[in-house]
Amino acid sequence: EKELPRLKDVFEDYFKIGAAVNKWTLHSAKDLVTTQFNSITAENEMKPEMLQPKEGEFNFEYSDQLVSFANEHHLGLRGHTLVWHNQCPDWMFKNESGQTVDRGRLLKRMDQHIETVVSRYADQIYSWDVVNEVIADEEDRFLRKSQWLELAGEEFIERAFHTAHKADPNATLFYNDYNESDPIKRDKIYKLVKSLLEKKVPIHGVGMQAHWNIHTPSIEHIQQAIELYASLGLEVQITEMDLSVFSWDDKRTDLMKPTKEMLDLQEKRYEQIFNLFREYKDVISSVTFWGAADDYTWLSNFPVKGRKNWPFLFDEHFNPKQSFWSVVQF
Ligand code: XIL
């Protein structure tokens, strides 16, 4: 039998090819991950609530395992994430009496978290998502309402980058967000990152999460977003890609397997999107999927709980889908 092409070889002259893994898929999808990919991201294991469940008590058990796994198999590692409104432990925002902390204390805790985590893995992680999802989705708001913003003020954003940079001057530091190709949100992301650059904040890239589906966003909007972020002179990384077979408003829950129409559309979209990525190889330094194969995806619980989805290039049995072939044949 002829050997399957490997994504990491096919795209060797273009960009790194990554998969998000967690403490289960690290084992179940081990062979697929180590043969097809050359980068991994922790799906949850490096988020603040996992790493520092109690103030000053760090738990590096799983993140250390990921780091050794990456080293052992010569995989690059993306760090995800340092400052986010989700999966951040509650204690971060509270004092001993259960009231909200003041600005100074919160920023100090933020610095301590970043310092501890980033320096522990210095030179082992090529890029960090330093700040995740702080732009608002509402048209009339710029920054997302969050405890970070309310308690610390918007300065926490630039400070996070400075602290991360000091802890590992060699890692490239990213601002990461979703709906990143929507023209209105895209312009806000651009505005934020531009203002950081003007203040000489050490930021090196924009992470496009790329939680897309088989209908939207348009290739044109994706291209415009890449162009705009690249116009800042920064790297772009595709950080959490999946192509859901359901459009956002499709709330059906009765499908046991994807229809032929869905798979055909997905194949076509993957082909177009990777054609675009290859055109921008001087800008895009890595493309990471938010999983490895259709046996496991966070989309099975989002946005509809308990609904299966089939967003990747490999099926439930780790076999290549027609989408795989459309991506590797060019
Ligand atoms: C998701 C994980 O995949 C889930 O397992 C978890 O329950 C919630 O977070 N944007 C991000 C990622 O930056 O961290 C999210 O990951 C998906 C959306």
TrEMBL record:
| Record PROSITE patterns | GH10_2
| SMART domains given in the database record | Glyco_10
What pathway is this protein said to act in by its record?
A: Glycan degradation; xylan degradation
Query: What reaction(s) does this enzyme catalyze?
Result: Endohydrolysis of (1->4)-beta-D-xylosidic linkages in xylans
Report which superkingdom the organism of origin falls in: Bacteria
Q: Which UniProt keywords are listed?
A: Carbohydrate metabolism, Glycosidase, Hydrolase, Polysaccharide degradation, Xylan degradation
Record InterPro entries: GH, GH10, GH10_dom
EC number from the UniProt entry? 3.2.1.8
Concerning Pfam families, the annotation shows: Glyco_hydro_10 (PF00331)
Q: Which GO terms describe its molecular function?
A: endo-1,4-beta-xylanase activity
Share an example GO biological-process annotation for this protein.
Answer: xylan catabolic process
Query: In this protein, which residues make up the domain named GH10?
Result: 1-330
Q: According to its UniProt record, which protein family does this protein belong to?
A: Belongs to the glycosyl hydrolase 10 (cellulase F) family.
The name this protein carries in UniProt is Beta-xylanase
Species of provenance? Halalkalibacter hemicellulosilyticusJCM 9152
Provide the organism lineage as a comma list: Bacteria, Bacillati, Bacillota, Bacilli, Bacillales
